[in-house]
Amino acid sequence: xxxxxxxxxxxxxVMSNAKIYITLDLDWLSDxxxxxxxxxxxxxxxxxxxxxxxxxxxLRSLDSDDYEIGLHPNFDPGGGMYNLNALYELHKLYPxxxxxxxxxxxxxxxxxxxxxxxxxxxxxxxxxxxHEGLHCVARSKTxxxxxxxxxxxxHLELEHGFxxxxxxxxxxxxxxxxxxxxxxxxxNTDVYSRYESSKANFNxxxxxxxxxxxxxxxxxxxxxxxxxxxNGVESGLLSDLI
Length: 242
Ligand SMILES: [Zn+2]
Description:
By secondary structure, the protein is an alpha/beta fold. It is built from eight helices and twelve strands. The protein has a single domain, classed as Glycoside hydrolase/deacetylase (TIM Barrel), CATH 3.20.20. It has helices spanning 31-44, 57-61, 84-93, 112-117, 152-157, 182-187, 192-198, 217-230; strands at 5-6, 9-10, 19-25, 48-52, 67-71, 99-100, 122-123, 137-138, 144-145, 150-151, 176-180, 234-236. Strands 3, 4, 5, 10, 11 and 12 form a six-stranded parallel sheet that branches. It has a four-stranded mixed sheet with strand order 6-7-9-8, with no helix packed on it. A two-stranded antiparallel ribbon has the order 1-2. Helix 5 (152-157) links the parallel strand 10 (150-151) and strand 11. Zinc ion is lined by residues 25, 27, 72, 103.
């Protein structure tokens, strides 16, 4: 009997050698609200790569064996020019970082020399939703592109559900890189308008009023982490791929 995969559940107890990569785009969420995401990861012993937007005491406190810090620069100041200072300033805050994913995935070949200058080894801006068979490719002599194939904001945009089994299988051939936004984990976002409405109270106690009590992104995140832990699946850091 072969391996049959339904949702996040492996049938017949057969394990594949797939490795799962979880990434988080921080998007300026403060530690108080980020903590829920870290607590869930820690509860299940799942590793993650966190793309930082600002100085964070919580990120600095994490064990680098389990949590990689990458950079999440916002290159778009408006006006059509790249805001390179966003990269330089994050590089100064996290000089050990070797990877980057841009806010809004804004990227272009002109940025490659800048990434090299900041000692980046990979960028993760290519989003191929639900694609199978993905693999890393060389983007320049020294920088590798690491594509990702699932993101919570696309899931919300497409109005998919939040029950167990709504995420792609964990045993896809090729890379399986899941991206979450800690703000959606905190809000347990179910519809994008909830997040939009919460923005007026971003990073302040009023944000709690917008937390969804029904099924949402946090349920998906916890299901994914528990499925990884309960099936003995290995989780990894994006820098492991380089
Ligand atoms: Zn972002």
